[in-house]
Amino acid sequence: NLPNIFKNLRLTVIVNIFPQKEFCKIIRQISLKYESKNKLINLSVNFMKKFLNNLIEIISNRFDRKLIKKILNAI
Fold it and tell me: Could you give the C-alpha distances from 4 to 25, 30, 43, in angstroms and in order?
């Protein structure tokens, strides 16, 4: 039961892991895109930028914590 604004978000996560001799190099890319299908709901550009920036920061922090936890548990 997500609000309508969340139904129009597209989250993409790309993770590349490069093993090195004694460590692994991890490059991750997280992108968030909003596509409004309803033209009646016209949100301001500034509001959407702030909203998406805050949301991507929260998602990034949570993803990084979970990824680190999984890697440490595997070692």
Answer: 38, 22, 13
